[in-house]
Amino acid sequence: PPQSEVVYRPNVGLREQLLELLWGKMRNLTDSSFLDLARVVVGATIHSPERAQVWLARINEREETFSAWIRAAQKDGRLKAVDPGFAATQMHALLKSFAFWPQVTFNAALLTPQEQSNVVESALNMFLGWYEIPG
């Protein structure tokens, strides 16, 4: 679903919900138009630090939806107590370190579907392995 429609569902497994969220994020990160725009933004913010603050605020606003999802899962007793923003940043970093930064900074090739799947599954397993409260 689009980031604005991300809603925690207590009657659905965490793995299933996160898989959906991570694939949505992966689709965005591997979109060539998005990556082209990101290259322009990164270049512009290097030359104009005040612009960087504006873009950082916009990115944080978009990624707040995942923090809200984590908060809801914590209230439901399914995830460990941790700062939701910290955990969300970790999850985003797990994806972006393979499917964003190499492409934006070094013009690396887009990940293949198999590589995308490996990154999503690994990030999912790491996140749930650390934060999920066994039920």
UniProtKB/TrEMBL annotation:
UniProt cross-references to Gene3D superfamilies, sorted A to Z: Tetracycline Repressor, domain 2
Top-level division of the source organism's lineage: Bacteria
SUPFAM superfamilies: Tetracyclin repressor-like, C-terminal domain
Species of origin: Pseudomonas syringae pv. actinidiae ICMP 19096
Matches recorded under InterPro entries: Tet_transcr_reg_TetR-rel_C_sf, TetR_C_Proteobacteria
Cross-referenced Pfam families: TetR_C_7 (PF14246)
Domain annotation Transcriptional regulator TetR C-terminal Proteobacteria type: ranges: 16-132
This protein's name: Transcriptional regulator AefR
